[in-house]
Amino acid sequence: MLIRVLPSLETRKDWLSFLRREVPYCLVETPEVLVDFQSTFLQLTLFKEPSLDPVRYTLGSRQRMEPAWQLIKGCQWRLSFLIEGLESLDFNTHVRDKPSFKIPTDLSVRKSFTRERRLISPSQSGIITPLNEGDACWTLKNIQALLAYDQLQEWTCLTDRFVSPKAALTSITLEPQRWGVDTDARGVRLSLDGEPYIQFSHRIRPATRRLMTNQNPLI
């Protein structure tokens, strides 16, 4: 399913436009949240650091969507304010005890951690463009560009198992929390689950444009 990416949900107009969609389900860039309001429950999946599992808040009522809608309205239609309030709650105690963030009495609030492998944050799901030589700030986002456009040189696997650039790209996109980036005199080194895994040259070669498929296996 194609998921629409919205820049924000910070006004009443934004929310009304979102709810008029055939499927009110989208990614929001700021803050980075997956918003799902397909029933009487509002589900917010908050992406934090790539190394952390997304946090999921589920708010609503079994009978009607009005309680969740009233909470959105009470937050001045600002998703950022709603997320800030939810993050301030102590779920080890009674969540309604927070005086600065009022939860409607008929609204249930749950917090959980999702480990769905194919949940990708907006910053990881955008269009990838080739790198120039001056762009060599070694982040996972830039590594994805190098892999997607075949701009690497001297690809070396540091384990007994060969890993293709396409397989590495798929894994970095879907499982960024497993990967780390480091550099030394020999080049850029990628680690997987804390162990050195792949090394390649610092030099960026011109991009090779090609059609990408979704058939690459996960590592």
Give me a quick take on this structure.
This protein is an alpha+beta fold.
Describe the model.
The chain is built from 6 helices and 10 strands, in the order βαββββααβααβαβββ. The protein has helices at 12-19, 66-74, 79-88, 122-125, 140-148, 165-174; strands spanning 4-6, 25-28, 33-36, 41-46, 55-60, 108-113, 156-157, 179-184, 187-192, 195-200. The strands form 2 sheets. Strands 1-2-3-4-5-6 form a 6-stranded mixed beta sheet. Strands 7-10-9-8 form a 4-stranded antiparallel beta sheet, with no helix packed on it. α1 (12-19) links the parallel β1 (4-6) and β2. α5 (140-148) runs antiparallel to α6. It is elongated and about 60 Å long. Residues 210-219 have low confidence and may be disordered.
- The dominant shape is elongated
Please list the strands of the largest sheet in the order they lie side by side: 1-2-3-4-5-6
- Following the backbone from N to C, one meets helices and strands in this order, namely EHEEEEHHEHHEHEEE
What share of residues are in beta strands?
15-25%
Mean pLDDT: 79
* Total beta strands: 10
Low-confidence stretches: 210-219
| Radius of gyration, in angstroms, nearest whole number | 21 Å
Separate helix tally: 6
**Largest sheet, strands/sense/barrel:** 6 strands, mixed
Q: Give the fraction of residues assigned to helices.
A: 10-25%
Structural class: alpha+beta
Question: How far apart lie the N and C ends?
Answer: 23 Å
List the helices and strands and how they pair.
Elements: E1 4-6, H1 12-19, E2 25-28, E3 33-36, E4 41-46, E5 55-60, H2 66-74, H3 79-88, E6 108-113, H4 122-125, H5 140-148, E7 156-157, H6 165-174, E8 179-184, E9 187-192, E10 195-200
Parallel strand pairs: 1-2
Antiparallel strand pairs: 2-3, 3-4, 4-5, 5-6, 7-10, 8-9, 9-10
Helix pairs in contact: 5-6
